[in-house]
Specification:
Elements: H1 3-10, E1 20-28, E2 34-40, H2 47-59, E3 69-73, H3 84-93, H4 99-112, E4 118-133, E5 139-160, E6 165-168, E7 173-176, E8 181-183, E9 188-192, E10 194-196, E11 199-201, E12 204-209, H5 217-223, H6 232-247, H7 253-272, E13 280-281, H8 283-292, H9 297-300, H10 303-311, E14 317-318, H11 319-322, E15 328-331, E16 336-339, E17 348-352, E18 355-359, E19 366-368, E20 371-373
Antiparallel strand pairs: 1-2, 1-4, 3-12, 4-5, 5-8, 5-9, 6-7, 9-12, 10-11, 13-14, 15-16, 17-18, 19-20
Helix pairs in contact: 4-5, 6-10
Length: 383
């Protein structure tokens, strides 16, 4: 799913556009016991409660695509009778009115979700009347193309509020605040089916994780049955490994600068073309970037082997995960230098007193610890 498609679903979680017909929940304690369950019409909730649930639902569709939000495809086996996708289909088609199915859904999460503490499982059912759209991308509310029926689930931690003092107006005094159990923002969740090309995609699901480095493999395997990609951090490490092992002794600052500049050019071109899908690199694209950056042919001869060892055969690498588009960084054990990506030309290396040094010209206003300093100019007589 793209940012635009995700944003369109998030806009439904407002009083004006809400069409959620049912919400269900199961409160689980730290011993994996079901403390309580509920199922009710969403629009019958008090307004204040609705707003709180809206916030949790929107959080389940928040974050970076490729890091916190992952579109996963179901293997064919999952769509057969008894498969995970087929189970979610039944859950959706019953409109969350089948208590036995709900119990099985909760059990699947409880048995595989690793969390120390209490948590709340939330699940909603909705039918979105997808409005038609003009060539100018304007919605036509009275011209619906289809009805997108979906379920959205999330798992939220439930923790005791912090201790403190509160003001009691009846006693006109400050007293110890009564601590209660508070629902926190979701740790994980999913949207099924995916909303792709503004239409229902029964073969995919949008998965959410608050921590991009903790994808909760066991939960995903039991609940969705989908294959997870590498985490954001692992993708970055993999990309770095490919470059380091391919370039070997030719991996210097200038070469990494060239690679960073090529990636930056790809990002800018992607923006100009207004392509909604995130920018993803495959094996051939990574090889082309290295070649265009000046990597010698004799080094590229080992690229295929290096890529296979580090990333496998068909591992997607999101550009947003493998590079920082906002900064170019040079780091040593004692010094860290950050430069705007469009000004990497300011960085150069020179041999001074038989040592390789990083040289950065001091131009314009220079501050040290927030104090404006004046650049020293050479004495003409010394020259």
């Amino acid at each position: 799913m793209t940012k635009q498609e995700i944003a369109e679903i998030k806009k439904l979680f407002t009083p004006r556009k809400c069409s959620i017909d049912r919400i269900c929940g199961c409160y689980v304690d730290g011993e994996k016991n079901k403390k309580t369950q509920f199922r009710q019409a969403f629009l019958s909730l008090p307004e204040e409660e609705m707003f709180k649930y809206f916030e949790l639902l929107r959080k389940t569709l928040s974050g970076s695509i490729g890091k916190n939000l992952l579109t996963l495809e179901f293997p064919l086996a999952c769509e057969a009778e008894g498969g995970t996708q087929e189970f979610l289909m039944r859950l959706r088609e019953t409109g969350l009115k089948d208590d036995a199915l709900l119990d099985e859904f909760y059990d699947r999460i409880i048995n595989t979700y690793e969390y120390v503490g209490n948590y709340l499982i939330l699940l909603i059912h909705d039918c979105y009347d997808v409005p038609g759209r003009t060539k100018d991308k304007l919605d036509m509310e009275d011209a619906s193309d289809e009805v997108y029926e979906y379920i959205l689930a999330c798992v939220c931690p439930v923790e005791l509020s912090k201790p403190g003092l509160s003001y009691n107006p009846e006693e006109n005094a400050f007293q110890n605040r009564i601590r209660d159990w508070v629902v926190g923002i979701p740790q994980t969740g999913f949207l099924f089916p995916a909303f792709h090309d503004r239409s229902t995609d029964l073969h995919s699901v949008l998965y959410y994780t608050k921590d991009g480095e903790d994808l909760k493999d066991g939960l995903v395997d039991a609940l969705l049955g989908c294959v997870l990609p590498l985490s954001a951090g692992s993708q970055k490490e993999t990309f770095h490994t490919i470059i380091e092992e391919t370039l070997d002794d030719t991996c210097d600052i200038e070469m990494v600068k060239n690679i960073h500049e090529k990636l930056s050019e790809m990002v800018e071109e992607h923006k100009l073309q207004e392509i909604p899908e995130p920018l993803i690199l495959d094996r051939n694209e990574v090889k082309t970037i290295l070649a265009d950056s000046g990597v010698p042919n004799e080094k590229l001869a080992h690229f295929e082997e290096c890529y296979e060892d580090a990333a496998g055969e068909d591992t997607p690498l999101f550009v947003s995960n493998v590079m920082n588009a906002k900064s170019f960084e040079v780091k040593t054990p004692d010094v860290v230098v950050k430069v705007k990506p469009e000004r990497t030309d300011l960085i150069e290396t020179r041999m001074i007193d038989n040592r390789q040094c990083l040289v950065i010209p001091l131009e314009g206003t220079v501050e040290v610890n927030g104090i404006t300093v004046h650049a020293q100019h050479p004495d003409p007589e010394e020259e």
